[in-house]
């Protein structure tokens, strides 16, 4: 009976039946409670083809490290990137404002758990659901290629 | 002596010698402590000629009203609009990020104090100093002309 149970567990695990459906593939990152109340790091704008307005928010560990200019970020740092399609303001012809939300993405610092990816775990969510494994396989490669010298973090604190 | 003193006071007052140099003309709005830690309302982007990235933050009264969809905003609401020149990201050719800070602007709701301007006081600051009276004379006219039906507030809560 014990052997049967172990086999069932192994099968369930390999098919993802025990995986947390709310967690990102590869990294197991989930959407942190209250991230929408976190402090502003910086906005950004993405031109074609994404055409997005974005804002990066950070938890208190993130903002403390940013303000002190300390790298690497400490374990416990979490960054959240919110993105929306940008659309013309109905009020000002020169302004663009957020349209539909597109993705919410997180970087979670845990230097032991994520030792093989610079200490960072990644999670990309669309309508509250994690994106697929293929999308998550691209995260670290790009951060590593472009901003390894900033502890793999693109966004700088807005002045 | 009393008459002389009153005359001196009147003169000083008329020349602005007793005005708070940190407060906006017309409205007397000052930069609120800790506004940089306030919660995100929404980002925006301004095309030519301003070429700015902007973020509106709000205090807890503001966010509560936004979330509940309640208009008018209650007394005590404060909105902060931070703005930066947008400049190309050094990392991604499709991205724009904050360059130099340009202005920080506030709207303060006090329906008695600011009864003649829809209940809102306005403050526009450049490098921490209030902009001149001429600039402050334009605030309410524009908000009144375009968004009177949204309690004079342009920015909507980002989804």
Q: What separation lies between the terminal Cα atoms of chain A? A: 63 Å
Q: What kind of oligomer do you see?
A: homodimer
Number of helical regions of chain A: 3
Q: Most extensive interface, residues per chain?
A: A-B, 37 and 37 residues
Question: How would a textbook summarize the main sheet of chain A?
Answer: 6 strands, antiparallel
Describe the structure.
The structure is a homodimer of 159-residue chains. The first copy, chain A, is built from 3 helices and 6 strands. Residues 4-18 of chain A have low confidence and may be disordered. Helix content of chain A is 23%, strand content 31%. Chain A has a 6-stranded antiparallel beta sheet with strand order 1-2-3-4-5-6. Chain A is globular, with a radius of gyration of 18 Å. Chain A is an alpha+beta fold and 159 residues long. Chain A has a single domain, classed as Chalcone isomerase (3-Layer(bba) Sandwich). Chain A has helices at 2-14, 60-68, 133-147, and strands at residues 39-46, 52-58, 78-88, 95-109, 120-126, 129-130. Chain A binds chain B through residues 36-37, 39-40, 42-50, 53-55, 57, 82, 84, 86, 89, 91-92, 94-98, 100-101, 146-147, 154-156, 158-159, and chain B through 36-37, 39-40, 42-50, 53-55, 57, 82, 84, 86, 89, 91-92, 94-98, 100-101, 146-147, 154-156, 158-159. Strand 1 of chain A pairs antiparallel with strand 4 (95-109) of chain B.
């Amino acid at each position: 009976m014990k052997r049967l149970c172990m086999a069932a567990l192994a099968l369930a695990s390999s098919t993802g039946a025990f995986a947390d459906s709310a967690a990102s593939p590869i990294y197991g990152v989930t959407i942190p409670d209250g991230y929408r109340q976190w402090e502003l790091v910086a906005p950004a704008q993405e031109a074609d083809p994404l055409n997005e307005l974005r804002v990066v928010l950070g938890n208190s560990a993130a903002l403390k490290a940013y303000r002190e200019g300390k790298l690497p970020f400490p374990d416990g740092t979490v960054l959240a990137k919110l993105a929306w399609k940008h659309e013309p303001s109905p009020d000002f012809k020169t302004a663009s404002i957020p349209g539909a939300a597109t993705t919410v993405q997180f970087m979670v610092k845990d230097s032991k758990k994520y030792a093989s990816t610079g200490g960072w775990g990644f999670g990309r969510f669309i309508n509250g659901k994690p994106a697929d494994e293929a999308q998550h396989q691209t995260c670290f490669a790009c951060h590593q290629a472009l901003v390894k010298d900033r502890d793999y973090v693109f966004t700088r604190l807005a002045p």
